[in-house]
Amino acid sequence: MKHIAIVTGASRGIGLAISQILLSLNYVVYGVCRNPENCNYHHPEFHLLKGDLSNPNTIPNFLNQIPNIDNISILVNNAGFSHFAPIEEFSPNKITEMTQVLLTSPMLLTNSLTRILKKNEGRIFFIGSISGIEISPWGNVYASLKAGLHQFARLLFDELRKYSVKVHLVIPDITKTEFYEQLNIEPDADPKSFLLPEQIANVIKFILTDSAGQVIPEILVRPEVFKIKRKKFEK
What we know:
alpha/beta; Rossmann fold; two-stranded antiparallel ribbon; 9 strands
């Protein structure tokens, strides 16, 4: 029986790249996303489940769709979205939605699957953000939630290591994905100034194929140079 991996936000960007790496390592991958029909990638062992992580009631619904759920050995908490603005411009609904997707849902998923992961001596990956470390203009809500996710992962590492469950926090810097679609900045054209989703996925592969007896609890991945540009909007 093949091992099963769950990846949130699996239909594009970093989540899709991680899913493809896991498939290459012979995992059956169940991806969770809002709109599975928009994903153009297909593989016989890649199964996209519809789930809105801003609604906690959907979590048991999509978990119940996974056959052989007791074979889950990897959980990748990756899903997220960005919204940067002065704090007074956030609506209460937007703050609640971001909190649910970026912090509460990873906690709920981890809570739901930890007993299985203990039995299988599995792994939990958290995809963090450089925003959770550094100060960014108008990044108040997003950065605070990512910092909270970082701390949750760090505390979980110590809690679960005695059960041989390995917890890994991967913190990417600027990565060229759809993340910047709604922002007024974007990665520079210089290919040395941004990461690609495949590079983050290769970090996951490195961790999974690393020597037994050691764990990488946290890794920060940064591009070679720092450059970013403001988008030009037509007047």
